[in-house]
Amino acid sequence: MKAAIVTIGDELLIGQVIDTNSVFIGSMLEEVGCSVIEKVAVKDTETAIFETMSRYQNQVDLVILTGGLGPTKDDVTKKTFARYFDDELVLHKKVFLHVKQLMEQFYKRPISEMNIQQAYVPSKCKILFNEVGTAPGMLMVKEQTTFVSLPGVPYEMKYLVTEKLLPYITKHFQLNAIVHTTVLTAGIGESLLAEKIEQWENSLSALDIKLSYLPQFGMVRLRLSKTGTDEEQIKQQIHHKMEELEQLIPDFFIGISNASSLLDEVSRLLKVHQLTIATAESCTGGSIARQLTSLEGSSAYFKGSAVTYATESKVQVLGVQQHIIDTFSVVSEEVAKEMAVGVKKLFQTDIAVSTTGNAGPLKGDSEKEVGTVCIGIATPEKTETVTFNFGQPRSKVIEAAVHKVWFLLYQYLKQKKSAI
Amino acid sequence: MKAAIVTIGDELLIGQVIDTNSVFIGSMLEEVGCSVIEKVAVKDTETAIFETMSRYQNQVDLVILTGGLGPTKDDVTKKTFARYFDDELVLHKKVFLHVKQLMEQFYKRPISEMNIQQAYVPSKCKILFNEVGTAPGMLMVKEQTTFVSLPGVPYEMKYLVTEKLLPYITKHFQLNAIVHTTVLTAGIGESLLAEKIEQWENSLSALDIKLSYLPQFGMVRLRLSKTGTDEEQIKQQIHHKMEELEQLIPDFFIGISNASSLLDEVSRLLKVHQLTIATAESCTGGSIARQLTSLEGSSAYFKGSAVTYATESKVQVLGVQQHIIDTFSVVSEEVAKEMAVGVKKLFQTDIAVSTTGNAGPLKGDSEKEVGTVCIGIATPEKTETVTFNFGQPRSKVIEAAVHKVWFLLYQYLKQKKSAI
């Protein structure tokens, strides 16, 4: 079963917002076995929306549109939807009562003419009732293709996809199993890796397994994908191929992960070993803490972070000695070490990591080259430090430093594992 | 001048990565007056890429493709590019020497057969020389349309766009001025706002100005856009319309901003007033600190943050009194107040903000309802606290709390402004 995702709005085209809606929809569709073959962002004009719907007609089984369902004049999706199906907009009583209630109870004002417009839908459409907002989802079928229009507000869209659309899809479509398995490798470049695994890579095509290389900051993720009817068999085939791969590159093979980063693996190992962690962040500015707390249940191991951005805060909050800063510079392994030790003591944890660096574009309180980052890791056994240069721009330095912290933590925790 | 952006890779379709490349390209093209009318993500197969190129042929002036230029077998863009132009791949000597040098100096190993492949390009293409990576950008023209292929690695793509592609565009194309101006409003819903400004909105069409509503967490951004030849005249027209709007809704009009959030405005006002700030974050887990440090030059006002995720860390690090936690619960305005006061003292700043809440999905150390967030703001004058419920899911609670912090800081700083 094939699907296309259409996101509507000029803000997506001029770079004003980052589209995360289609990311969510894509991952949800893949999970139930619906293959997304294309996604497109179009202008919020009737012509652009109509032409895009026509283009996918009978080319895919399902088209999901998001956005352009608000009450204001710039939102034209519903009108276009009705026109595409030669239908007219009629007042939907249940939606009307829902909008009225929302206005009166939540916004404390009577329903307005503009609110009432939200209750109008194409007469022949199936409503995906939106309990968490005013704009309903709409589903209509033309020939071989089902079209679904969803609001662009992320949590309303997510609610409708998980609660209304996915149940509809699994009931009405013949679905294949799609299995994607991603493995992390580190310490080897993309092209050298490809040379080492060439024969193994060639063996995949006989099994109809597709291999993709996803390089990222000194790591290469390898994704194996296969679509078919027998999910168990596919999983076994891929599992077997992964075992072969591990034997082929034991020094670089980190582990199988369906997440996009090492973070989940670090999180899992912290829980396994019942270790607590704190972070002292300067140049990463809270990014490490934020990623840890983005995971549900992280309070089991994450105690907190001291984001000591200013040099004097490193002294005041973490107890870094001023003469060490004066002697070695604030961007130095000596300071990274003191920060890690200081925050470990402050939050009374088993492990602590620290970062201090010049993210750029200008040098701060240190003469060290722009892009330089020192990382400290304090464990129950010892405190280690290491220096990297991640170049420029600023955003890359911060992102690369955070990645490196996960990798260093992973290495420590993995070795810990084998010692048990 | 019209453009389309094509991003290549299955990872974009299955929701494995968030596409930020097209966001960057879109904003850069708009800045030089090139209007992006569509962007599309396609599978990394020759068929998908070829068909997409054909579809835009003579429909737009410029097509920018990113991704699929790596040395491995899953990367097929270059092959497809050559085929589309009936061209053959030939070794480019300058690129070859550059790749060889990169391998020898940076990776400390001889150039391999696979690396050499990166130096092959279509014989008739114009090279966009990639000083920061191995894969060159390629530019070719067919009939009315110029096609450009760029690597998908973000910093290589950004380098080639800013250093090579934009100069080419401004030299070879007739460009219009595109002016987008975004204004922030807050404290009024989208539909009520639309009713209040209906007549003003109607007056825009006579000037060919397009209005878009962009609602987001209790704020509505209004974007005015116009394309034309006389940039100064357009700017004046939009400026005049914005003045009218401010008079129409003085209580809700926050200010003109070409950024997507209040953060830039808060940052600007902190600098204007020479005030320093620290944050004490529990449920937001470092997100506030991270956003502040993402801005260049933030070290002028941001001293640091205490991410006290665990309840005991609020006591140990910030000096929150245990009996206050026991009496009022860790998610309470009383604790938010102590956190703000504590972090202000710890980092010795003028202002401090604090967050403590239940982001969910499960309740933590507090019995307060999931979604509840208490925010504290300590200023030189006083400390205030406020409670919100942002519902679910977890990611929305965190994002909404951060937005609310910017809004509260903005309100404080704006009032401060008028007092000077």
Automatic annotation (TrEMBL), chains A, B:
It comes from the Bacteria. Residues 4-172 form the MoaB/Mog domain. SMART domains: MoCF_biosynth. Gene3D superfamilies: CinA-like (3.90.950.20), MoaB/Mog-like domain (3.40.980.10). InterPro entries: CinA (IPR050101), CinA-like_C (IPR036653), CinA_C (IPR008136), CinA_KH (IPR041424), Competence-induced_CinA (IPR008135), MoaB/Mog-like_dom_sf (IPR036425), MoaB/Mog_dom (IPR001453). It holds the Pfam family CinA_KH. CDD domains: cinA. Belongs to the CinA family. HAMAP family: CinA_B (MF_00226_B). This is CinA-like protein. It comes from Paenimyroides marinum. The lineage of its organism: Bacteria, Pseudomonadati, Bacteroidota, Flavobacteriia, Flavobacteriales.
